Amino acid sequence: MATGEFNNSLNRLRNSYRLVVLNDDTYEEVVTFRLSRLSVYIGLSTIFVLLIGLTIALIAFTPLKYYIPGYGTRESRTALQVLKLRTDSLERAIRYRDQYLDGVKKALSGSGTVVLDTTSLEVPNKEASID
Description:
Elements: H1 2-14, E1 16-22, E2 29-36, H2 37-60, H3 74-109, H4 126-130
């Protein structure tokens, strides 16, 4: 039964219809179109996809994108990037300063553990390096 309903729906999509445009005064046929439901559906779908694509391309590749709320201008975006880099470098400098101050506080109070370097340095002879 499902195949009969499918064939019936498919036949209904493929049935051809005639669209005639008549002159109202003379009843003369101006234009005649032979259409089916499937061709109308495909035509309208194609027009819809093309309009959406053209609208996206128009917004993406023209200055119209700057009128979209929240997009901002090119200058504001570059200024935001510069501020972000400056903020990152300031945060890094503050972190280094805090580490330095913690080390100085530990050294002055004597509470920190001191790690002694027990490896011996090999100093080259001046005579060997001159030759």
